Amino acid sequence: MTRDDLFNTNATIVANLTEACAKHCPEAMICIISNPVNSTIPITSEVFKKHGVYNPNRIFGVTTLDIVRANTFVAELKGLDPARVNVPVIGGHAGKTIIPVISQCTPKVEFPQDQLAALTGRIQEAGTEVVKAKAGAGSATLSMAYAGTRFVFSLLDAMNGKEGVIECSFVRSEETASPYFSTPLLLGKNGIEKNLGLGKLSPFEEKLVSEAMDELK
């Protein structure tokens, strides 16, 4: 299925579930991992607005799988432990809206431009790579579960008072011309404590952001 096919199925499911949340647990942290996240987060926001309980600091699009993949692929190329690699991934959660910010990777890594372009493309299309590997019989499952767990544990840690918890997530945003955009977020007891923004981007990454804008909007 394409993400557009998914939209027809998942949009209604997400609208129904978030309506129940808006009625019965309006203060809850809402973490949406159902694709297409670029669309299901705006849907969630509108449902909460309709019920008069919208708080943009408590609605998260879980894009962590993109970060996990970026960390893994960079680690493989550089012979590093993926658990110790951190690549911020900004933008959205589909195709060219997925923007790995390899220039901000810790530890610092460098790639020649052709390898960087190929690596970026692989991170953007990793979901399709899994579907092809499973010959269309399924999509990413274990890695998706791992990514969802990582994000939720980070959020729970922050809610329980742990300081300095940062995760990227697709949220309501003033950082770019797109009303929703994923950037690193400082998490806290009330959800988003602070949006840390895009940071310094390389010219290559700036071009990726501008190319993603139309689709994100």
From TrEMBL:
Homodimer. Keywords: NAD, Oxidoreductase, Tricarboxylic acid cycle. It is an enzyme of class 1 (oxidoreductase). Its EC number is 1.1.1.37. One of its GO terms (molecular function) is L-malate dehydrogenase (NAD+) activity. Residues 1-61 form the Lactate/malate dehydrogenase N-terminal domain. This is Malate dehydrogenase. It comes from the Eukaryota. The keyword Transmembrane does not apply. It comes from Ailuropoda melanoleuca (Giant panda).
